[in-house]
Amino acid sequence: MTALLAMHFVIFVAPFFTDHAIRFIEAISRLPDVQLGVLSLEPFEMFPRHLLGGIAAYKTIGDIASPDAIDRGIAATEIEQGARDLQKYVNATSIHRLFGAVEHIQVPLAQAREKLDIPGMRTEAALNFRDKHRMKSLLDRSGVPCARHRTARSMEEIWKAAEELGFPLVVKPPAGAGAASTFRVNDAVDLQRRLPDVTVGPDDLVMIEEMVMGNEHSFETISIEGKHVWHSLTHYYPTPLEVLRNPWIQWSVVLPREVDDARYDDIRAAARQTLDVLGMGTGLSHMEWFRRHDGSIAVSEVGARPPGAQFTSLVGIAHEIDFCYAWARLMVFGDFDPPKRRFAAGIAYLRGQGAGPIRVVTGLDKVEAEVGHLVVGSKLPVVGHLRNTGYEGDGYMIVRHERTDVVERVLQHIISTVHVECG
User: CA-CA distances (angstroms) from residue 173 to 207, 235, 394?
Assistant: First the structure.
């Protein structure tokens, strides 16, 4: 690759080339006056060929062949050295920005930025977002409403927390993401059954939280130098934790058009307070929260990075913008033009029933005939592919309309009509 002349040298860290990462790399590569370097665990041969013209340099970091290296994530020293190597390769006088979109690398990114004196979030703030125990403690002291919780480093402390909080409970790692390694326990018998799945010790902390009974949502915010300039929110039907507990559930997420409705005044205020307490500077944050059955709210957790599960696509569709490109501009130049939400949008996640490869997909013709004109994006399950056990499932369909209630009804129709049968 030939080094290009540009005003800003930017490094994006993508552990793996997921669809999510590819969209962000493509968006950053289109920014004006930018040289893009990419750091990844993947070998260069795996880099998408169609993006080669958009990057100035590439380097593989870490040991992709070592399961231990992948399990522990990417170290700050690896990012720091990789960034220095890319900087030398392109003869850049400085690194303008160093960032990534994945939850588990936000702390090492912050540590590397400090060592290299690159603008962006620092380690203390990154730890506030990444360490959920630290996060909840800060929020508790600041009066932000959140679920009651305890931490445990032994089985005895787990049982003590269960006695203090009462059932049902949620057990989670303090540095989890996307409901990974998180599970619900309904009673003492259920907890005893799940304890073999829990690792605790002096260096292995787990969180025990009350199970908030209500409806789960997300809240996304764009912040520039600590000022919160734009927000979005979603409704989950049902909660991601329920989806993980029940692999047969097909679920949906809705972005209501009424994002500034008075019924969201309380969560807007709580979200602003949360980000101020945790130290959000410039970036996009993704917060999960609950509306209890009594109407009160509880903040669950927040990440200082873009959401997954096609949320960026939903935001773009609801506002008729390229939201990945808008995020790239924000991260590189600190620039964002708040868009107007013109539509409601939503996504139905299509999940396989049973085990083994996908055998047949039914209901697609019916959906196309009855509501196909409202479907604006899709990735359909592929017969013969192995079933995806994650909460995003084997495919999705995205719907848009001016009215939120229409989007909700169409999504319900899709998940009730389309069936992905495996085996």
Answer: 6, 24, 26
Contact 249, 238 (CB under 8 A): yes
- CA pseudo-torsion sign 349, 354, 355, 356: negative
- Which residues in the chain come in under a pLDDT of 50? 1-5, 64-71, 177-179
Residue 420 contacts by C-beta under 8 Å, 6 or more apart in sequence? 350, 351, 352, 353, 358, 361, 381, 387, 393, 394, 395
From 271, 238, 248, select the one nearest 393 (Cα to Cα): 248
Q: How far is Cα 277 from Cα 280, in angstroms, rounded to an integer?
A: 8
Closest CA relative to residue 217, chosen from 175, 272, 256, 191:
256
The distance of Cα 246 from the centroid of its chain, to the nearest Å, equals 21
Residue 191 near residue 185 (C-beta atoms within 8 A): yes
Sheet (strand 227-237) strand order: 297-303, 283-292, 214-224, 227-237, 251-255, 344-350, 395-401, 375-379
Ordered by start, the domain boundaries in the chain are 8-120, 148-210, 214-422
Buried/exposed 303-322: b ≥16 CB within 10 Å, e otherwise: bbbbbbbbbbbbbbbbbeeb
Continuous H helices in 47-105: 67-72, 76-89
Identify the architecture of domain 214-422 in CATH: 2-Layer Sandwich (3.30)
What's the pLDDT score for residue 63? 57
Q: What is the pLDDT of residue 367?
A: 97
What is the CATH architecture of 8-120?
3-Layer(aba) Sandwich (3.40)
Class of domain 148-210: alpha beta
pTM: 0.88
**pLDDT for res 64:** 47
214-422 and 8-120 share a CATH fold: no
Give the per-residue pLDDT at 352. 92
